[in-house]
Amino acid sequence: MLKDSYFALEQWPRASLGVSLLVYMGLVWFLRWKRYKRIHQKYQSKFEAGTLTPEEAQRVIAVSSQYDMPMLLTYSLSFALFKTYGIPTISKILASTQELSSREWVSKRYADTEILICELGTIVIVLSSLKALPLATWVTCPITGKVHVNDTKSPPLSEKLSDAATKSADPRAMIALARVNWLHAKYPIKNNDHLYTLALFAFEPERWAKQYGWRALSPLECQAYYLFWAEIGKRMNIKDIPESADAFKAWFKGYEERVMVSAQTNHDVAQYTLDELLYAVPTRFGLREFARSLAISLLEDITREAMMYPVQPAYKKQLVNVILHSINFFQRFFCLPRRSPQSVVQVSLPDFQANQTKRKETASSAEGINNAEAYRMHPQWYQPQPWYKPVSGNILGKMKDRLAITLGLAAQLPSPELRSNGYRLEEMGPMKYETVGNDEVMKMAEELLQCPIRGPWARG
Fold first, then answer.
1. CA separation (Å) from 315 to 297, 312, 320?
2. DSSP string spanning 186-209?
3. How many Å is the maximal CA-CA distance in the chain?
4. Which of these, 82, 141, 254, 409, could form a disulfide with 172 (CB 3.0-4.6 Å)?
5. What's the CA gap between 278 and 295, in Å, rounded?
6. What's the predicted TM-score (pTM) here?
7. Domain locations in the chain?
8. GO MF annotations for this entry (predicted)?
9. DSSP state, 134?
10. Is 363 helix (H, G, I), strand (E, B) or coil?
């Protein structure tokens, strides 16, 4: 009897550990699907009725792109941009801009594109040299310019901006889009190349989530990505956007098969881009080249051949698959969901009054708020070449910056040359255009929003 009791007591820690693990996994499952279920309960009926709007579509895609799989879907957009370099008419324009002739220019283009696209939730593209522009802003910030109160937990805007006219205004997405449109006009980009890039942004997240994510995108989410990017395309004046996702996919595949062919400019642009993306990977023991080959192994054969890269050993593709599937398995069953959205740009309105750099204390033409020279933004994370990173104001911050250089995680310290005072969306793009077209871009953004842009967003 005593022996049986001792045995039972001995087994108790194992049993309790197993029960605790099951309870935890159940909690993870409940919380991880909670936001997904809520957005589907809200918009599934509109999707089935065919009445989902682009604004609602942007709220739908926020669940996957900002909460459930932000890193994976950011990579999907990065590879979407990368795939466009396999089109000779695109790579030739990029190569001709001379914006790829130095690390500084390449890194700025990449940083700008990431910010611009995320701000739109974000607007995307200018073909690489331009593409570093506004992806993040397009995708993250409301395309209507209005903050949707039910979709944010940020403090009331009245607490952030004293100007009553800006209490529901967030014009970042349309400023980013206007800047991209202005820059695009400087280059002879074919409409079909615009259309192809747009299709990649609409459909690559679906493909990556299905292949590498902890869950696939639902039919509602797939349609939302199409609707959102189709709306962005219309605002970019891209012509002949197919009326349905299926028709767009069919056109996209046909166009890719016809025009994605090998060219030296494809290879050159791809190499410059990989050099920047892999900068932080050590060169010792061939690690950087190994990482380069892993990245190439992710490319589809048609893209790899167009970029003139050799076939990679099968084990490298398998290694990438094992790594990505291990991550998605751990996420699905053991990781609690994010409590706040993840994006390179600040999702809620920036707290200009408390945190932003004020370069010039002059009154704005809009309600007495400091003008555009005073209000600048900073990304939520930085590239190895730390564009827009503020200079650290304390010893600990300076030590961290120097340690990052020592470890090879950063190329240099924040500085005015890297625009440490922050960025303005209407100034982004190649350095030669930094101070050109700013007022024109703001007027274009006002036309897209159909209302004046005031407060800290105005140029004053």
1. 10, 8, 9
2. TS---HHHHHHHHHHHHHHHHHHH
3. 89
4. 141
5. 10
6. 0.84
7. 55-348, 352-457
8. oxidoreductase activity
9. E
10. strand
